[in-house]
Amino acid sequence: MAIDTQMKVIIKTQIHSCFASVSSEDIYVYKVFDLPFAPFAGLVIGHKTKKGETDDITIEEVIWEDDRQCFLCYQKSDKEIYDAQLHKETHRHISKIVEEYEDADWLICDKD
Question: Is the model's pTM score more than 0.90?
Answer without folding.
Answer: no
